Task: structure prediction
Amino acid sequence: MKYQAYTRHNYLKIPKIKRLGKERLHSIDVVSYVLPFKTNNYVVDELIDWKSFENDPMYILNFPQKDMLEEKPYERLSKMIQNGTDRSTISRYANTVRLLLNPHPAGQLDHNVPTLNG
Result:
């Protein structure tokens, strides 16, 4: 099996991807502008149960989900994509959204600070 990476730019080449429907494919497009998205043919072909992908943990872990973004930024990005806004404008807004996300949601900077003698 030859390795094939899938990202935002080529995930539509995945043979079973059309099973997701237009709305879910659009969600992947929207969220993947903000959050990194990369998977590969082994995951897609061997690990995901495409018959029940909605509940498949490997699908959920590997593909961007609508709920990963707050509603307002998601809707704005969605409209930008649907209206054919140029990629550079979409990317600039996506970068703004990315910067507003909490990079340490579990308090890692408070709870995982190394200490010496104490």
The chain has a mean pLDDT of 94. Residues 5-98 form one domain.
